[in-house]
Amino acid sequence: MNKTQRKPGFYLAIIATLMAAIVVVLGAFTRLVDAGLGCPDWPTCYGHFWAPQSAIEIAVANETFPEIPVDLDKTWPEMVHRYLASSLGLLIIGLVVVAVRQRKNAGQPFKLPLFLLAFVILQGAFGAWTVTLKLWPQVVTAHLLGGFTTFTLLAILSLRLSGLKFPRFSSLPLLNKPTKLAGLTLAVVILQVFLGGWTTSNYAALACPDFPTCQAQWWPETDFIKAFDFAHPVGPNYQGGHLELPARTAIHMMHRVGAIVVTLFTTVLAVSLFSIGLRRWSLLLIVLLTAQVSLGISNIVFGLPLAVAVLHNLGGALLLISTAIINVLLHRKELAYV
């Protein structure tokens, strides 16, 4: 890996990437403490820019939203998440301004910042729908996938703006590059992220309270038809979930199966990278995979501790980012000209 001149917007992209990481972590925290409806309206919170504070304001809010009374322990994570996500949007607008001004410079990314801006606007809409549609599982899952995607694209943009080149990747003969394997690994990681989002949005994380068995059985009663019925009606409040135990069990078991598939593909990819001399990238994949599997098992064994569950969410994002970057490097001779 050789160091070259950084491109305009590099430090802004780094800040945006770190901000995206914080937003992803806080989003997971908000879901896990059941604060997704800490504010039942959007973009305000009970009609306030922060939250009602005085006894009179709280009384008025409770009268206006009787189905969701004020709980200040839940309003603050929701509003902090909203303001940080809005700040991330402003940073991405800044990246677009830099891209437009520098668009004639060779190797300066232009399309990616524009796509990021369009995508983060869509992500903001999903954030609003998460509240207004009362944690509709489809929207909650899409919002989680959107957060992971934003984080990943910002990480890739930061690399491109860094000016770094990776001669070990570009010097590899085409036949030695595990491009298909890397692409399949990325696909199964994305699928597993979806399954993780579907698990949390349907409150299925604790459907199996034991490990490696589930409900003291190797394969308990499951209902896959209801588990993956994406036609949930709009309208009900989905906080706490509406699915019965067999359906939640089916979702949980599929997430476990997905973890096995991801482990197999990621391990094979790591071995392949190691065999062609990309040992640091191989080690990175193994470390992230080991940490993620350990966190996932800990969630079950210890009853979904908040810190462990949040780290598991972040670990999934980091594994996704690493796999995506490896794919980019394997397909490009020089990262700076992507």
Description:
- Residues 334-338 have low confidence and may be disordered.
- This protein has eleven helices and no strands.
- It is 66% helix and 0% strand.
- The chain has 338 residues and is an all-alpha fold.
- Helix 1 packs antiparallel against helix 11 (306-331).
- The chain has helices at 10-32, 55-64, 72-101, 111-132, 137-162, 167-170, 179-201, 224-227, 245-275, 279-301, 306-331.
- The protein has two domains: 1-164, no CATH class; 172-338, no CATH class.
Helix fraction bin? 55-70%
- The oligomeric state of the chains shown is single chain
Q: How many E-type strands?
A: 0
Summed up, the domain count is 2
Low-pLDDT windows of residues: 334-338
Beta-strand content estimate: under 5%
Helix-strand string: HHHHHHHHHHH
Number of helices: 11
Mean pLDDT: 92
Q: Could you give a short account of the major beta sheet? A: none
Distance between the termini: 16 Å
Globally, the shape reads flat
Class of secondary structure makeup: mainly alpha
Rg over alpha carbons:
22 Å
Keywords for this entry:
single chain; 338 residues; mainly alpha; 2 domains; 11 helices; 66% helix; disordered C terminus
Quick recap:
The protein has 338 residues and is mainly α.
Topology, element by element:
Blueprint: H1 10-32, H2 55-64, H3 72-101, H4 111-132, H5 137-162, H6 167-170, H7 179-201, H8 224-227, H9 245-275, H10 279-301, H11 306-331
